[in-house]
Specification:
Strand order of the largest sheet: 2-3-4-9
Distance between the termini: 90 Å
Number of strands: 11
Number of helices: 1
Helix content: 10-25%
Bound molecules: FE2/S2 (inorganic) cluster
Structural class: alpha+beta
Largest sheet: 4 strands, antiparallel
Strand content: 25-35%
Order of helices and strands: HEEEEEEEEEEE
Shape: elongated
Radius of gyration: 30 Å
Length: 171
């Protein structure tokens, strides 16, 4: 009796394994690239490495503002997206202190970001959401806000009143 040698049948298993390994490596590579695309800008933002745009925006001329009055002015966000439309507009409370000095306050409450209103009769900024109240100088008078209203730098350029726009922290 003679024993027959086992016959190998070509199944293409080697080629299948190579394709599987290739697809696994491709998935890992694409996943790593995707993670890096998200992680790098996020890390730069958290570490404060990303430069925040700051632009002087004209909000009116000197004749538009009376000494002692606090008025709402609107201007374009410092980094509007091309498709932002009207949402690129933001506002501030602007007070003319005297002939040459202005103060601009953010309209964003430092508690949870609701828009604060100016109540001229009481000389106070009021937040409608949780009853936060700020004095005329932006300091907290009562309620949950943990810190004063943020301020924008203001300058007079020739006859124009300009605000230095910048991203304002919500809390
Ligand atoms: S958001 Fe203004 S008091 Fe809460």
């Amino acid at each position: 009796m003679s024993e027959k040698a086992p016959v190998e049948v070509a199944t293409g298993g080697g080629r299948e394994m190579n394709r599987r390994k290739f697809l696994v490596r491709l998935s890992v590579a694409l996943g790593s690239i995707g993670a890096a695309l998200i992680a790098v800008p996020s890390a730069a933002f958290l570490l404060g490495l990303r430069k925040q745009p700051q632009i002087w925006r004209t909000v009116g001329t000197l004749n538009d503002f009376k000494v002692g009055e606090t008025v709402n002015v609107s201007f374009e966000d410092p980094s509007p997206l091309p498709w932002a439309g009207v949402t690129a507009q933001t506002t501030a409370w602007l007070r003319r202190v005297d002939n040459e000095n202005f103060i601009a306050f953010s309209t964003i409450c430092t508690h949870l970001g609701c828009p604060v209103g100016w109540l001229a009769s009481a000389d106070l900024f009021m937040c409608p959401c949780h009853g936060g109240v700020f004095y005329a100088d932006g300091q907290v008078a009562s309620g949950p806000p943990p810190k004063p209203l943020n301020r924008y730098p203001v300058r007079i350029s020739e006859n124009d009143v300009q605000i230095l726009t910048m991203p304002v922290p919500i809390t």
